[in-house]
Amino acid sequence: MAERVTNPRDTESALDWQLERVGSAAWQDWTLKFQRMAFGYAHDSGWHDSADALRWLDQHALLHEGAAPRGALVWYQAADWVRVACSLGSGQVIGPLPRGEIGVARLVELSTDYVWSEPHFPFAH
Predict the structure, then answer these.
(1) Which sign does the torsion angle of CA 70, 71, 73, 76 carry?
(2) Which of 25, 62, 82, 114 has the fewest CB atoms within 10 Å around its CB?
(3) What is the CA radius of gyration of the chain?
(4) Which residues, including other chains, have CB under 8 Å from residue 121's CB and lie 6 or more apart?
């Protein structure tokens, strides 16, 4: 297993931050920004969007298949957009959902085509 990434905000605090925002529609098209901020980074991730981040992670062999562990970033496609959410474990994710608001959903209801990565933001600060 890969070494855990250290972020300004630990996994449980990042998940708490996200849970406090359930129901908000303020992050509708900002799935990557939402996750970056959840893990404690105030400034840009260095990636243009979620698709750009996914390409970078793929090029650096940082993507995994299978069940995403709690706190992992889950990358999936919905409505022709690459989106990212955070795993709560047991097949559930949290983040800006395709329908517009922050929420908790079963990953299989969002997409059957997904990969996951550690919450890695190599260019954020």
Answers:
(1) positive
(2) 25
(3) 13
(4) 7, 36, 39, 41, 45, 46
Phi then psi for residue 51, to 5 deg, are -65, -40
**Beta-bridge mates of residue 86:** 73, 94
Mutual orientation of helices 50-59 and 31-38 as an angle, nearest 10°?
70
Share the mean pLDDT of the chain: 91
Tokens of 47: 């990636």
Q: What average pLDDT does the segment 92-109 reach?
A: 94
CA distances from 124 to 37, 63, 77, 101, 107 (A): 10, 19, 23, 24, 26
The mean per-residue pLDDT over the stretch 93-99 comes to 94
> Structure pTM?
0.92
Mean pLDDT of 12-33: 95
Is the per-residue pLDDT at 55 higher than 80?
Answer: yes
Across-strand partners of 103?
95
Distance CA 89, CA 77 (A): 19
First to last CA, the chain: 25
